[in-house]
Write a structure and sequence with these properties.
This protein is an alpha+beta fold and 331 residues long. 33% of the residues lie in helices and 8% in strands. The protein contains eleven helices and five strands, in the order ααααααααααβββββα. The chain has a five-stranded antiparallel beta sheet with strand order 4-3-2-1-5. The longest helix has 18 residues. The N terminus and C terminus are likely disordered.
Length: 331
Amino acid sequence: MVGGIGIGMAMSFVALLVVGTYSAAAGLVGSGGRGAVGLAKGAVPAKYQPLVEKWGNLCPAINPALLAAQLYQESGWNPRAQSPAAAQGIAQFIPGTWASHGIDGDKDGDRDVWDPADAIPSAASYDCELAGYVKKVPGDPTDNMLAAYNAGAYRVIQSGGVPNIAETQNYVTIIRSLEKSFARPVGRVQPSQQAAGAIYFAQKKLGTKYLWGGTGTAAQGGRFDCSGLTQAAYRTVDIELPRVANDQYNAGPHPSRDELLPGDLVFFSDDLSNSRAIRHVGLYVGGGYMINAPYTGAVIRFDKIDTPDYFGATRVTKDGAAALPTDLPAG
């Protein structure tokens, strides 16, 4: 397999960053270079934003939001990240791939995998090189490029598109979903105005310190706990959820894991047989990720939902929420 951003899918996220997610549910322009794509406010750390904006426009198969999604997925913007598979730096190149495809992005005379000024341009350059290899393959050119980054261009050519490899298909899905999270929205929010509005509120709170019992009041410094955040997010679209997570579980029908949509509430429990034991809730944004207020000492952030304590999900409806209590104390 070709190494690079597609290798090391199990990388731990080390930097908790303010990532701008308007909505993975919104209809956004910006798929694989089709139309001008800007970054959502605060989506990329300021010191890396010029690099992402410049190199994210290197070729039609990529855009700044897509490049940002790749970098975030692999390293969480940590330039010193290293995987068990020896993938290195902010772009997670393995040594062999770096030796062949790393470039001197800042023109300082060296190619340093640990230097974002070299690694970010190299990620974009490698994307575009792979896009060239698979440009005649049927299907979406950006999907094919991402598949080549993960599984190798030969596999994509041989398969006539994204190969039937679970890791590769998952990688393409995750990056394309996260791409929407990093893109500045264009036009009207759709298809679900309620879900998109709730996510928009939550993304503006990324980086805010957690407060047990927090509901975002001025006296609390605008801080939240997990269910306080989801309650406040849906309140902005005129849906009033109950105060605590286990009551919020009953605010609508329960989609299966593979039916999740952005805006669904996702729940976690130590007792997977009892919804009353639910102890945590987050707001699903697509690609296997949620925005959540995790615990004391942490900040509101993106986290993966696929953990052993994942309980299930709720697709919030106005009628379902209206039937539930909303004035219970924090749990």
